[in-house]
Amino acid sequence: MKGGVIMQLNPDLIRDILLKAELGSFKILKNNDGDVNFFKLLKDKNTLKQFEEEKEKYQKPEEFLSYSNREIEYHTLFLKEAELIVIKKNSINVTLEISDLTVAGHNFVSNIRNDKNWNKIKEISNNVGSTSINTLIEISEKLISKLIDKEISLCQ
Prior knowledge:
The chain is mainly alpha-helical.
């Protein structure tokens, strides 16, 4: 992540972003604190007008109202880096558009969609002392595998 922003990963925000992305493309307002290129772009009157129009039209998705723009941007870029989501390029760099989930993103969101499973994944993650994305994915895969085994044994 750029700019040396210190941010803890919030598993619930990760899940919220992935669930929202599964429903379709959406935009988040980019946090431009200290972004020199952003301020250079705003010197151009047309870009400034476009930015103001974009910012005025922007409405934070309801699922994210309890999170700051900085948190949302950080987690969105993190999920892109983890290759779970696809972000569409934006020429004026005002918003980030989450355009899709990757195959890995679809697999992970399928494992964490159910609230009961998600709460169990978080509980196990807390018990082992790691909320890394790799840990969350591994726990989700193992939990789903165990649930599949249990259901299969009931059918026999």
